[in-house]
Design brief:
9 helices, about 210 residues, Arc Repressor Mutant, subunit A, 2 domains, mainly alpha, Tetracycline Repressor, domain 2
């Protein structure tokens, strides 16, 4: 019996160390994938960046799994979350008052796009040749579409959205507007400031939520 506490402590310590090692590997993967691309990034390079052995990287996850985790953590702060409300990026938004709700959602999405747009581009490219990444991408897109349908439903419930002839079509349009691709094209490629992007995004989303004529 006296050994149970030390054993439990050692077990918790090992689990915490494993989590810390995984987090370090994912951070290293995110940096290398974003700066070098998917094909050019090797397990050995990830290991050097993370300060661990290549074998440790291999036992943590495959290269494809590391790309998926790197994007999810960079974009939303969480791996494999079922909905955005389960992630750091959207924590607490449903508890906000109506007047603050939409601006908070769009601010969080803009910040997430700023962090994750480069890895999103890598993810899209890798999905063309890697079936594991392709399957993960399908899941991410399905969850994003479901999240945006819930967002429109919440906006209707709060009276932020009005007179929508087709709420589902509005949700699909907003899903396109808030995608990392829009940030990539307008800020990274066209040279817009993040502030200009945020103003444009709000106006575009409001136009979808409150159509005229």
């Amino acid at each position: 019996m006296p050994e149970s506490v030390p054993r439990a402590y050692r077990s918790e310590l090992r689990a915490r160390q494993a989590q810390e090692t995984r987090a370090r590997i994912i951070t290293a993967s995110a940096h290398l994938f974003a700066s070098q691309g998917y094909q050019a990034t090797t397990i050995a390079a990830i290991a050097r960046e993370a300060g661990v052995s290549a074998e440790t990287v291999k036992t943590t996850a495959s290269k494809a799994e590391l790309l998926i985790a790197a994007f999810e953590v960079t974009f939303s702060g969480s791996e494999a979350a079922e909905t955005l409300t389960d992630t750091e990026v959207a924590a607490g938004v449903l508890d906000l008052p109506d007047a603050a709700f939409l601006d908070a959602v769009l601010t969080q999405i803009t910040t997430a796009n700023a962090r994750g747009h480069a890895l999103w581009t890598v993810l899209l490219g890798a999905a063309l040749s890697d079936p594991v990444v392709a399957e993960a991408l399908r899941g991410i897109l399905e969850r994003r579409r479901a999240d945006l349908h819930r967002l429109v439903d919440e906006a209707l419930r709060r009276g932020i959205a009005r007179d929508l002839p087709d709420p589902g079509a509005a949700a699909d349009a907003i899903s396109f507007l808030i995608s990392p691709e829009s940030y990539q094209q307008l800020v990274a490629q066209s040279g817009w400031t993040p502030e200009r992007y945020a103003v444009w995004l709000r106006a575009a989303v409001v136009a979808e939520l409150t159509p005229r004529g």
